[in-house]
Amino acid sequence: MSLISKNRHNRVMVFIDLRNVLRSVELQAVETRLDLYAMTKQLVGPRDLVAAYVFDTRMPLDVQDSSRRFHDKLRYDGFRVVAREAYDPQRNEQKEVDVAMACEMVVHALRGHYDVAIVVSGDRDFIPAIQHVQAAGKMVEVAAFAKSVSNEVIRSADRFHKLETMPLLQMYSPDDEVFAAAAPGTDAKEEGVSDGEAD
Amino acid sequence: MARQIKDFLGDFGKHFGIEEHDLSPFTKVRILHFRLDAKGNISASLNGRPVFKDRSSEDDIKDGETWVCKVDMSRDSYYFASTIVKLDAQFYFELSRDQMDAIADNVWERHRDMINPLMEDRYRAAIAAKIEKAVRDAELESDERIEELEKTVADFERKDAENRHIIASLQQKLERCEGSPPPAPPSGGLFMPGPVQSTIVIHRSGPDELSSEGFTSHRYFAHFSADQKILLIRPHDEGNIICDVEDRTIRLGGLGKISYFDGPENVFAEYAPQYGGFLMRI
Predict the structure, then answer these.
(1) Which of A28, A171, A172, A197 to mutate against chain B (most B CBs within 10 Å)?
(2) Domains (ranges, CATH) in chain B?
(3) Is A29 helix (H, G, I), strand (E, B) or coil?
(4) Is the ipTM of this complex over 0.85?
């Protein structure tokens, strides 16, 4: 039971660290994908969603990039995709993404664009940003898979959502490969993300 | 008893060819225990008089031996004894059953006062040991039985508590259902006419197959939690799971891998307004 109650009139902004949350979804045996759309809808609930940001990296425009179509699909679904051109393929690392997301959280908080920030990441690099947002009088909720979140992050947040207890992994018909392959956002499926659905 | 001993000795006489009428009035058959006296002679004692071995007797008598002898009691101060047979282990083995009984009876009659307390003590100790063992076994058995009963009682109490909890939960659901109409789903009106059931029964007929009368929509989304405990089946016009409207069956790839299928079963699913679909435990 939380001391802080949900106010359905709260303005909510969602910040998704895409690579961090995808790393936690490791169900190799089952053909399934993380449904970002359903996740955002479930996290926000009856509250007002101001904006949902997805932070990721992308390749330069002259390089073949399978995530580009996925980013487009997310934009189509209503996400604001911030894709930094800072992926290091040799070290399999993404750069600038954490700082970009932290800056976005703090800037919107200081400008009073939202009442509640939902951070979808277990990375403890966000703790200073979370504290600054809270200092600006906003509430911060953290959503992550329990195995990939540090206790410091959970303690910093005003509320913690366990993603593994939420029905977020989308299933497919067993004989539906053709359907899945033909569906928009197929490239994204290769990365373990579902394109979800638009209401 | 004296008569029996006399008969016993008479039997010996007959056994060794000595008849009663062969003996003179001063000659008697007696059992003598020979010892080495202070003067270095082997002698026995009878009626307070020393008894020495007769010269005619060929047997060699040693210190501590017991012999059946023919005793010449014609002298006043000492007697002479002619050996008949030595009473040793072999002698007792060769005794007849009647003779052994006669000896035992004799011993019993002579030492009854001494044997009785000994036997009583021995039997009393044996009976006490037996009683103690029986009590111990009974206590052990009763302890085990009590332990089993306590476990059974604990099981029943646990089941009772579970059942009470289930009944209370079902009563609460019943009260809620009676008090308010079931919530309507957010979409799928075209394929879902009429009110939506708050609880439906889903029949799992195969590892990946689910069917239910509640599957009234043509398309569904299906999501499960990463901890593989709950499955959400949500009707939606753009759902990727096609439902056969005739047999109302959907097939979910990989369901058998996240939830082991061990035969057809019925599962209850509840409508979850926050998700806009039916939630079932897997």
Answers:
(1) A171
(2) 2-94 (2.40.50.140), 199-281 (no CATH)
(3) coil
(4) no
